[in-house]
User: What shape does this take?
Amino acid sequence: MVEYFIPLMVWRQRLLWAQATRRQLGRWERLVAIAVRRDLDKRESVDGAFWLAESEHHLLLAAARSLLRALELEPQSAVISDTVMRDELQEVRDLLEHWDENMPVFNVTPRKVDPPHPSGRAFAERNPHRTPYNPEAWSNVGGAQVTPNVTAPALHDLLDAVEAEVLEVSPELARFVEVRAETPWMRHGEEWWPRPWAELDGN
Assistant: This one.
């Protein structure tokens, strides 16, 4: 049987899912920045805005999980994600996928039942008072929160490393690298804040 995942295919899959993750990350981050800017400017929320952030966040985690799977293939990648990052991206992806079982556990405060599956138990142990179902999570210290312990800037760093490794090995794949979306954030020292309303085009 011919081996399907020859090295070039593996590098392709890594770049494919890095690009998909980056695309979703950009879409979701913009929605988080708009939500934060609305709160700061005391504007009314727009109907459906939270729903849109929720669906984009779900798709982001699905893409990130596929990237992690691609990094597990041979030839071995030199890009190593932080253990907590890797574990939590996988856990939250699972919890989002099985929302019907887990929302009643994590969206009730205080928690009245224990998570039924290992991914939920691991997440709960690391985050005893937090939920994976907050698609507009943000901190001025870390920026947009993909998960309670994975920030958007940290995920961008991982994507940068994957992209650099792929293009070093297979520079012919450079034509598939998309233009990176402009960041919706401003840096003030070590803090992250959303851009002014006009720059976000939040309507």
